């Protein structure tokens, strides 16, 4: 089976100006895992970092909650680009869900180097 890394550049599907790429990435991950592939990491970049943002009631968007659950079930990391979180969206750590880890392109590059395939959405 194949070791995969998925990069999500799209905002969660309930965000303004979002596309269905967020949902498509999630469905792809589900299908790959069901077929026995290993998911090493999902890296959220650009507007994708908004998956980690919680609202005023500390709730994730529905698709982000699904990512968190899938991550717990299958043991892969959800990594959001810390530079984009801080520079582009001015989010603080308390505005992010604990299921998502702050990381950078170094962590992403290391995961890609170990994986057999990178899929971007």
From TrEMBL:
<dbReference type="InterPro" id="IPR003787">
    <property type="entry name" value="Sulphur_relay_DsrE/F-like"/>
</dbReference>
<dbReference type="GO" id="GO:0097163">
    <property type="term" value="F:sulfur carrier activity"/>
</dbReference>
<dbReference type="GO" id="GO:0016740">
    <property type="term" value="F:transferase activity"/>
</dbReference>
<dbReference type="GO" id="GO:1990228">
    <property type="term" value="C:sulfurtransferase complex"/>
</dbReference>
<dbReference type="InterPro" id="IPR027396">
    <property type="entry name" value="DsrEFH-like"/>
</dbReference>
<protein>
    <submittedName>
        <fullName>Sulfurtransferase TusD</fullName>
        <ecNumber>2.8.1.-</ecNumber>
    </submittedName>
</protein>
<keyword id="KW-0808">Transferase</keyword>
<dbReference type="GO" id="GO:0002143">
    <property type="term" value="P:tRNA wobble position uridine thiolation"/>
</dbReference>
<dbReference type="Pfam" id="PF02635">
    <property type="entry name" value="DsrE"/>
</dbReference>
